[in-house]
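Project outcomes to date are best conveyed with an example. Our students and postdoctoral researchers have been running inverse folding experiments weekly, and each run begins with a structure described purely in tokens. The record below, which covers 181 residues, was selected by the lab manager from last quarter's runs and is presented without edits.
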């Protein structure tokens, strides 16, 4: 039991520090869907902490459940778009199930958001909390690009475009079209 817990913490550190190595090992062990456990755990923890700002236990529980649902939906949509771009535009190899599972490990970067919330709760420092939240978002994109590269073998540049570039371009075009209407 103790070794399993230590292995989990080691895996979290590895995702944040050397995601390439972690994703290769995860794919070799055929365990990419374990990322969904991380996603559920960190989304619940972040939601519980955010709801805890209200000092109401029921609100904290509702926030945790809501954040789990939203995190899974967001991750699913992001994985679908990244998968489609990697496969059809950049001719990558790999399957959607692995992409979705690896995207679950992105949630390890929620630790930065959790520290940001803790900073806000304990010291009231909005600036520090904002910087940690911004770092969390940037690191989520980096980890996602590495995950797409590990699964689809298209290179880190094309992986970044799969994760952020082309989806952002699509959102901009849709916004421009809707803005004109």
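After processing, the design step wrote out the following sequence:
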């Amino acid at each position: 039991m103790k070794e399993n817990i230590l292995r989990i913490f080691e895996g979290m550190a590895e995702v944040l520090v050397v995601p390439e190595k972690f994703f290769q090992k995860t794919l070799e062990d055929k365990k990419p869907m374990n990322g969904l456990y991380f996603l559920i755990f960190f989304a619940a923890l972040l939601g519980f902490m955010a709801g805890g700002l209200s000092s109401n236990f029921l609100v904290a529980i509702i926030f945790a459940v809501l954040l789990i649902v939203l995190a899974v939906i967001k991750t699913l949509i992001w994985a679908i778009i990244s998968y489609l771009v990697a496969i059809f535009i950049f001719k990558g190899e790999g399957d959607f199930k692995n992409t979705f599972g690896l995207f679950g490990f992105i949630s390890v970067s929620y630790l930065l958001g959790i520290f940001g919330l803790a900073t806000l709760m304990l010291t009231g420092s909005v600036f520090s909390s904002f910087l940690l939240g911004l770092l969390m978002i940037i690191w989520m994109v980096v980890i996602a690009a590495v995950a797409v590269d590990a699964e689809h073998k298209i290179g880190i540049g094309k992986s970044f475009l799969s994760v952020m570039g082309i989806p952002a371009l699509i959102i901009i075009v849709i916004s421009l079209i809707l803005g004109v209407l």
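The CA atoms of residues 52 and 140 lie 24 Å apart. The helical segments are 2-17, 19-28, 35-52, 57-89, 96-104, 110-123, 126-152, 156-180. The training component of this project remains on track.
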